[in-house]
Prior knowledge:
Arc Repressor Mutant, subunit A; 9 helices
Amino acid sequence: MERDHLRALMEAILLTARGPVTADSVVETLGEKETSIEDVDAVLAELKSDWDRTSSGIRLERVAGGWRSVTPAQLDPYLRTFHGISARHRLSQAALEVLAIVAHREPITMPEINFIRGTNSAGVVRTLLDRSLLRVAGRKRVVGKPFLYRTTREFLIHFGLERPEDLPDPEELVAVEDSGTDNAPDEVPT
């Protein structure tokens, strides 16, 4: 496939895809005779370079094993106004705590989550399951066979992570907090 045509196609795919796009999925769709993974990766690198300028309204972000187009955070208030979005669906403090526990200790059971938090987390876990941020990953082979919980691909997308290993270690967070520097974002994306 001609490079300009592949670039136009990649732009269209990235702007219309419902989730992260992988080079493999593009090659599978087009067929190996049309293009190669190397060609798609090269076009993605070009797009990232072009879109990641400060004057651009589109960015290319690697997340959950693929690529997605996003808008810069500073344009968020204008986009919300234009699209008539008044409220944000934020995660509660309890939901963020449960997600952090599961993400750092997965797979983990409800009794283990409850023990770490010191309170019953069943309602929070149910909400996170409904929002597809957590999933049931089987049962633990102990008395009572409690469910094991893991984060989902949607969790990675939601928090802009390529893989779970990209999360900072809890010890690093404590060290940053103890040093008095605050590099945390003002707002958690939803």
